[in-house]
Specification:
Blueprint (H helix, E strand, L loop, with lengths): L22 H15 L7 H10 L3 E2 L4 E2 L4 E2 L5 E3 L4 E2 L4 E3 L4 E3 L4 E2 L4 E3 L1 E3 L8 E3 L2 E3 L4 E2 L4 E2 L4 E2 L4 E2 L4 E2 L7 E5 L2 E6 L5
Parallel strand pairs: 1-4, 2-5, 3-6, 4-7, 5-8, 6-9, 7-12, 8-13, 9-14, 12-15, 13-16, 14-17, 16-18
Antiparallel strand pairs: 10-11, 18-19
Length: 187
């Protein structure tokens, strides 16, 4: 018989993660999110920015937020000026997500601030901040994992997974993402 420890989800304790706000506020955000963010209707970015701010998030000027965007907790979100959030982007921000100026999150990009301790019987959660510095581009369906900083003007290629910090002005690709080449920007 195998004597090794096993995962036992019946022992999971919901108190291991606290979203920082009341259940009522989370429930209200859930309905606002469905109506204004997660549907296919073209709702103006101005209205979306209003709701993010109303729930404690920070949003700069000129930010564009496309349809079908899922933001888990707006109070854990900071977006700089002139950044773009594409269709089907999911910001799963159990911890703070800081998005700088002129950042592009392309269609289906995923920012994951949480994970689980796979080596504990309780499968307990842990969360870490994600930071996307100015000029970063997260390409279509790419994933940024918890604790990662994408430094100034770095690029994460389509379908790639960033599990470690990305250097400035560099292009990363693959799963896990590896440095491919320098990003050179011209006029």
């Amino acid at each position: 018989m195998d004597e090794r420890e096993k995962i036992d989800l019946s022992n999971y304790d919901r108190k291991l993660y606290d979203p920082g706000v009341s259940f009522i506020k989370r429930a209200f955000w859930y309905f606002i999110s469905i109506f204004f963010f997660q549907n296919s209707l073209v709702v103006s970015s101005g209205i979306k920015k209003f709701w993010i701010r109303a729930f404690g998030g920070k949003v700069g000027k000129g930010v564009v937020i496309k349809p079908k965007v899922n933001i888990k907790f707006p109070w854990n979100l900071q977006i700089g000026n002139y950044s773009w959030i594409g269709e089907n982007v999911w910001i799963d921000n159990h911890a703070m997500v800081v998005i700088g100026n002129n950042v592009c999150l392309s269609q289906g990009a995923l920012l994951l601030t949480g994970s689980r301790y796979y080596d504990r019987t309780s499968f307990a959660p842990y969360v870490k901040q994600i930071t996307l510095e100015d000029g970063v581009w997260i390409a279509a369906k790419a994933i940024v994992c918890n604790g990662v900083t994408c430094h100034s003007h770095s690029v994460l290629g389509t379908l790639s997974v960033a599990t470690k910090d990305m250097e400035e002005y560099s292009i990363y690709q693959g799963n896990p993402a590896v440095l491919k080449k320098e990003r050179v920007i011209s006029k």
